[in-house]
Amino acid sequence: MSTAALSLWGAFERHPPLNWGTRWCELITELRVDVLLPELELQQELQRLNGRWSRLQPPPEPLASLHLPGRGLEVQARTADGEHFLYVIDRLTRQVVAYVTFSRLVEIHRRADPHLRAPHTKVMPAWRRQGIASAVYRWWLDSGRSAITGARQSPAARALWLSLARHYRLVYVRIDHKCLYPIEAPADAAALSALNVRAVLLGRGCELADFAEPAS
Length: 216
What we know:
The protein is an alpha+beta fold.
């Protein structure tokens, strides 16, 4: 078990929460958070994206059903190989300032594949804390599709998932030989940090039984 996991679990034992379910959400998002893209690398990535914008195939199209908070932004989207790419564009500069990818996971069975995508969000610093990622995730979940965490999460991603869990059902699964099995809150930090343990936000009208195996 990592030093961070031991420290986290020790704090939990010293100060047990009144609501285990709420604390469980906090615990799972305290782990596997070693993905943090350096600012310069992020800016360069978005610059490259803007540079090849006209060559993207299939070309992005306006997404009128997604309304972002504030003014001056628009969303264009495209789908390729079952993955969804949403681009947030500054209307003034016509530059991509953020994008969200809803990716397929190779580690899950094809029965679950149509139901789940793993979202990954990148936002330029000047456009953060404006509700862009939250609006995109809500649009995805409200359209009747579910989201699953990848193997890693950034601190910003974990905070967003906790926020969304107040409005959407948050469940947990264990991936075993590409099948997804519902799990209860693990009893220790080591179980929480396992790479095959994932969180799932269920979209509107979605059920865990749509893609998971019966609980054992």
